[in-house]
Amino acid sequence: MKQLLLIACLLLSLTITSQNNEELKQFINKNNVALYAVQKTIIAKNLNQSHATFIDLLKKQVAVTHIYKTNSAQSQAIAEEVRLNCLKFLKEHAEGSTTYYEFTPKSEVSKMTVDLSSILPQKEIQTIESINVLDPQSLNALTLTIK
Predict the structure, then answer these.
(1) How far is CA 20 from its chain centroid?
(2) Taking a C-beta distance cutoff of 8 angstroms, is the pair 47, 99 a contact?
(3) Is residue 12 part of a domain?
(4) DSSP H or E segment with residue 10
(5) Looking at residue 22, what is its pLDDT?
(6) How many domains, in total, are found in the chain?
(7) Residue-level pLDDT at 10
(8) Inter-axis angle of helices 2-45 and 72-93, nearest 10
(9) Domain presence at residue 146
(10) How confident is the model over 122-144, as pLDDT tens digits?
(11) Which of 2, 39, 72, 94 could cross-link to 90 by cystine, CB 3.0-4.6 Å?
């Protein structure tokens, strides 16, 4: 009887963890859509002063995909920061509704300092920094989603 209860608890915890991982994966992948919306707005409104901000968001999103499996809590926090910054940008600059990108934070999203060099290889950081923000196809070379 105790073994049956233990197995049931184990299966329940695996199911909950699986659901949380799937939710995080969906959240991260939806960030990709938000990033494309930010890029589209930068292009449409010729917001050259926003290129550095966009590159920073890209670096963080790529970092999120790198640590998704190894550090889900940090991945969640960084992903939420990316989404909040995308949402803020879109509310300031885009026309139309931003409801699709809104969410309720699950982690304590603060202005955390993330050392991206401890997550991303220097070569990848350089690749991201050299992206042509005005070319929508340029993002295809980056890993911005979880498969």
Answers:
(1) 15
(2) no
(3) yes
(4) helix 2-45
(5) 92
(6) 1
(7) 40
(8) 30
(9) no
(10) 999 999 999 999 998 999 999 99
(11) 94
Cα–Cα dist 146/46, whole Å: 30
Crossing angle of helices 51-67 and 2-45, in 10° steps, is 160
Residue 147 resides in a domain: no
Q: Which two tokens stand for residue 43?
A: 């292009």
User: Could you give the CA distance from residue 60 to residue 56 in angstroms, rounded to a whole number?
Assistant: 6
For 130, half-sphere exposure in the C-beta direction (CA atoms, 13 angstrom radius) is: 7
**Beta strands, E only, the chain:** none
Mean pLDDT of 33-48: 96
Classify 102 as helix, strand or coil: coil
Q: How many residues does the chain have?
A: 147
Provide mean pLDDT across the span 21-25. 92
What domain range is 14 assigned to?
A: 2-141
- Best CA proximity match to 87, nearest among 57, 64, 51: 57
Residue 87's SS3 state is helix
- Look up residue 131 and give its two tokens: 């992206």
Domain assignment of residue 129, yes or no? yes
Look at residue 92 and give its three-state secondary structure: helix
Cα–Cα distance, 66 to 85 (Å, whole number): 20
- CA dihedral over 52, 55, 61, 64, signed as positive or negative: negative
List the one residue out of 133, 139, 87, 142 whose CA is nearest residue 109.
87
